[in-house]
Write the structure tokens for this entry.
Amino acid sequence: MRSYPHNSPEAAARIVALVLISDGHVCSSESEILKQLGAEHELGLEPHLMPHIVHTLCEELLLGVCATGSLLANVDDSTLASLMAEVSDPALQRTVLRLSLAAARADGHLADGETVVLEAARHHWGLTDDDAASAPKSARRQTA
């Protein structure tokens, strides 16, 4: 799996993308909540880049699907730790967790795969849902 620059918008967005695909599909309610929250802006992504991040992640994960039959089967603890390590800025971590939680809860069901990714983020970053709730929103989102 490719590496992104440390604390880059792409590294942060990939973790949100992993939550999106972790239950086997991206639900329209998940995409819609991220759009409403201005996720791309919050993460520092160029407009309309989130679908590209999701697509790229899926392509990378598909390379191992033939052996296992599951996209997330190749995302073990070591891989999750590596992905989480690319985001070390505490404010960015809280933003990623806040957006990921919102997306995961958007369809009213927290799937096992979503739980695995969210728990990895909480564990590796030492955060709670309360920390995510206190994540600073960008200036644009505050004035909207």
Q: What stands out?
A: The radius of gyration is 14 Å. The chain is about 65% helix and 0% strand.
